[in-house]
Design goal:
The protein is α/β, with parallel strands linked by helices. Helix content is 42%, strand content 10%. The chain has a single domain, classed as Alpha-Beta Barrel (TIM Barrel), CATH 3.20.20.
């Protein structure tokens, strides 16, 4: 591929973020349902930060400063500066997910959670329309209440600028896996809307999944030792504090995603809802080929345990799923060439403006990672797959 062809690639960021802070909190509160503005302001606009057990990190220590400072970029909550940063990287389009509201599904007050979701989604719709065609939104839903979540998906599908809805890869209905019929209203509504569901993790160990199962919330933020406190004796506090982000992120993100993907594919959800579109975000992508191989192998050997499947799990993935890679992953080209995945099922994400976002340099890094692929494969990974996923 020539240099001219490389630079002609259309780069679409499948997973950027907004930061619900500063003046945006007031803007979002102004978009709240009637009677909820003050409650939104009191909770500072963040689902997780409104929980009494969760507090945003203080900038008084070095680790918190390194976590918070990158997110203070003006582009985190202002469309103009964001688009300027996108232009500096050659990014044509970015799809925006929340930050603190990634944790709204753990909020005990379901009425407040629903109101916060509606306020944020209304604000997001207006926000992305400030720069038409450059920014699109992924709505947040109150996943702790299945019917309300389905209702919000139905509502936001009619909002201009909203191209997806987001859920966490955690079973919010008392540890019931995603193939349980209790979640069917979410799958049915998303399928009917035509919008994809983005499965996106959050760093707090506050929902059923790997963090709670492996007691990762009890790992100290300064040591790798699991603390001896009994989580049942200490109530929600030990289970909801951030703990050691290195371990919660490194372990829980891919484990929860593998678990969710397995029940969605092997549990028959994709069989029952063939129009459902799913994208698996912020958990790396290098595991996807061996994981699909493992699922296909088990489908062949233990088919009696998945009698509702009419195809191998990887075939459902190829039909209606996408996965996001980080731009520096050495396995990206391998997955693109695998018959179980392919370039048309791969998107990439900047994670801007979170601390691990590589701005400047993210698109240059992606170019290097896909340099060995064909022109068609490169075009798909750079942006073509995201166009199909989000219907851009």
């Amino acid at each position: 591929m020539t240099t001219t062809d490389v630079h002609a690639l259309r780069f679409i960021d499948s997973d950027g973020h907004v930061i619900e802070t500063g003046t945006m909190v007031h803007e979002m509160a102004d978009h709240a349902p009637k009677g909820w503005r003050e409650r939104i302001l009191e909770s500072r606009g963040g689902g997780a930060s409104s929980s009494p057990e969760y507090h945003e990190p203080s900038p008084d220590d070095d680790s918190s400063t390194r976590l918070i400072n990158p997110m203070m970029r003006p582009g985190g909550h202002q469309s103009g500066p964001r688009v300027a940063d996108m232009d500096s990287e050659g990014i044509d389009v970015s799809v925006l997910y929340p930050t603190f509201l990634l944790g709204v599904q753990a909020l005990a007050d379901v009425d407040l959670a629903e109101a916060q979701c509606q306020a944020y989604n209304n604000w997001l719709s207006d926000h992305v329309l400030e720069t038409p065609g450059r920014l699109w939104g992924a709505a947040v839903v109150p996943q702790q209440d299945i019917e309300r979540a389905a209702g919000e998906i139905r509502r936001v599908a009619k909002l201009p600028g909203i191209k997806a809805a987001f859920i966490r890869p955690n079973p919010t209905a008392d540890w019931k896996p995603f193939n349980h019929p209790i979640y069917d209203p979410i799958w049915a509504t998303a399928s009917a809307s035509g919008m994809p569901l983005g499965l996106h993790p959050f760093l707090a160990p506050d929902l059923p999944g790997a963090c709670l199962a492996f007691r990762l919330g009890e790992v100290s933020s300064t040591t790798a030792e699991v603390q001896g406190a009994d989580p049942e004796a200490t109530g929600n506090n030990a289970a909801t504090r951030l703990g050691n982000i290195f371990f919660t992120q490194a372990i829980a993100n891919p484990f929860d995603m593998m678990n969710s993907l397995t029940f969605l594919l092997g549990g028959g959800v994709c069989e029952r809802y063939p129009d459902l579109k799913l994208v698996f975000l912020e958990a790396n992508g290098g595991w996807i080929v061996p994981w699909l191989e493992r699922l296909d192998h088990h489908y062949e050997v233990f088919d009696w345990d998945v009698p509702n499947l009419k195809m191998a799990p990887s075939e459902y993935f190829k039909r209606q799923c996408w996965i996001s890679f980080d731009t520096d992953e050495s396995t990206l080209a391998h997955a693109a060439n695998s018959p179980l995945v392919g370039a048309d099922r791969i998107v990439w994400a900047s994670d801007y403006p979170h601390p691990d976002a590589k701005i400047p340099g993210v698109t240059d890094e992606l170019r290097r990672s896909i340099a060995s692929l064909t022109d068609e494969q490169q075009a798909l990974i750079a942006g073509g797959s995201a166009v199909a996923l989000y219907d851009l």
